[in-house]
Inverse folding.
């Protein structure tokens, strides 16, 4: 990450692929659903390519075996129920926060910056996962894909988060691993930070202006390290 970030008053984070690696449990839920419907299992890399647009879309993709697929409505409803039931019971069996997630969040909290999670995962499941990982106390706000009428890549969740946190949206950073995160940030008018350790191909996204983040990082503590003006102000006050 090159250069300092100035005037940051809030930080919003994606969840899956940004704060934690949830792919093993998502893949297990998808394959448990498929097994209940007498369908063969999907390889984990295939499920990975389906993640990022919320569980409703993931179920369509997992049922059809196609990233653009849409299952018949009755089958989808059955699959969605099976997926959510299994996933809710096994949400953190193998899901783990990335190694430096807590360190990075703690450093930002030490500056008095309010933090939010903006994910396309259902809100109830997002809250449950954050609690299971011991991360919920870091966040003042959690918005899921079903919290508002629109989800990422719409700017609506980011604009809503900035309003709730009481900060100008241009002074809130959005941290994520996918095109949805970058597109939402650009549409909302807030700075975007892409993580290189998540599910999205940040190198590929950075090749295109529409999906190029303002900064990229290899770990969350890098955000704090580049908030130089605010760090110096805090250090002077100590």
């Amino acid at each position: 990450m090159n250069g300092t970030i100035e005037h940051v008053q809030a930080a919003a984070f994606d969840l899956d692929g940004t704060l934690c690696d949830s792919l093993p449990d998502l893949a297990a839920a998808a394959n448990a659903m498929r097994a209940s419907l007498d369908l063969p299992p999907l390889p984990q890399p295939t499920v990975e390519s389906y993640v990022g647009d919320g569980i409703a879309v993931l179920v369509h993709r997992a049922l059809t075996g196609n990233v653009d697929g849409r299952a018949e409505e009755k089958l989808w409803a059955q699959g969605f129920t099976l997926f959510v039931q299994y996933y809710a019971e096994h949400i953190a069996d193998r899901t783990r926060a990335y190694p430096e997630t807590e360190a990075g969040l703690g450093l930002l909290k030490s500056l008095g910056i309010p933090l939010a999670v903006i994910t396309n995962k259902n809100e109830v499941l997002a809250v449950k996962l954050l609690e299971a990982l011991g991360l919920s106390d870091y966040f003042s706000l959690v918005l899921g894909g079903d919290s508002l009428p629109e989800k990422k890549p719409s700017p609506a969740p980011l604009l809503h988060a900035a309003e709730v946190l009481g900060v100008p949206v241009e002074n809130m950073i959005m941290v994520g691993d996918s095109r949805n995160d970058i597109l939402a940030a650009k549409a909302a008018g807030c700075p975007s930070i892409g993580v290189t350790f998540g599910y999205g191909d940040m190198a590929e996204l950075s090749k295109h202006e529409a999906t190029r983040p303002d900064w990229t990082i290899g770990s969350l503590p890098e955000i704090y390290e580049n908030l130089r003006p605010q760090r110096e102000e805090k250090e002077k006050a100590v």
Observations:
- The chain has a mean pLDDT of 94.
- Strands lie at 10-13, 20-21, 96-97, 115-118, 141-143, 172-176, 192-195, 215-217.
